[in-house]
Amino acid sequence: MKSYFAFNPQTHNFWPIYEAIKTYYPIGIGYAYPVLYTEYEGQKKFVALLADNFHNMENFKARYESFTSKLQEQFGLEVQGTSFGQQPCFSFDLILEKTELPELTKVKKLSVAVSLLGDFYTIYGADETILKEERQPYPYNYHAVNAITASPYKEFEVHFLKLKQVILERYPHHKQVPFSILTTYIDGVYNRFDETNESTIYNALFNHLLRANYPYNIRGDQYYGCDEWRNEGITDADFQQ
């Protein structure tokens, strides 16, 4: 069942997320109507952002590759880039553990995405397995995400918090979008990568890697990060009334 974007504006201010999406996406028009979709002024700005950040190699190296290289040195772990150049974020995986067997690969990682559409980022942990099958003419892989960890939880905690600190040092005005918000929808928002299905907020702000309608097993606190969005003056006591 779909959950649509909603929040209590008396306690939290998530309006910047809605405003960013409304700015760049023609709400109510899908990519099944490409002329209407691409003629939307926000989509023209969207394409210009991609050109400036990805297709300009000097900018890409300065804004993204230098950062991931520094991260790899700081953490002493493998960093796998997942930026596609056609989606509105810089993204990468920090590989915490990897076990490779002849027929199976197990990966524990932290996935990070920093949006180009506004001051937003996300971090979540993922445990995944890849079954490998020898086929002709090419081998075939069966990929599954076994669990998503939505907050600094258990074995992810230390690296999650350290990664969050490093991101905020580079992007001091950015806020983490809570997992509970990322997986909601805005009625009538579509992107180029799934023209017939509405996009989650994650898909609109970042990329397709956290897939809609996938039956994820969620660990940790899905509301982690909500404190960053509290209206000024709201305290814990207000939530207890």
Keywords:
alpha/beta, 7 strands, 241 residues
> What is the N-to-C succession of helices and strands?
HHHHEEEEEHEHHEH
From the N-terminal CA to the C-terminal CA, the straight-line distance is: 30 Å
Class based on secondary structure composition and strand pairing: alpha/beta
Helices, by number, come to: 8
Number of strands: 7
Helix content: 25-40%
Largest sheet: 7 strands, mixed
Q: Can you give me a brief rundown of this structure?
A:
The chain is α/β, with parallel strands linked by helices and 241 residues long. 32% of the residues lie in helices and 23% in strands.
Report on this model:
With 241 residues, this protein is of the alpha/beta class. It is 32% helix and 23% strand. The protein contains 8 helices and 7 strands, in the order H-H-H-H-E-E-E-E-E-H-E-H-H-E-H. Helix 3 (41-55) packs across helix 4. It is globular and about 50 Å long. The two termini are 30 Å apart.
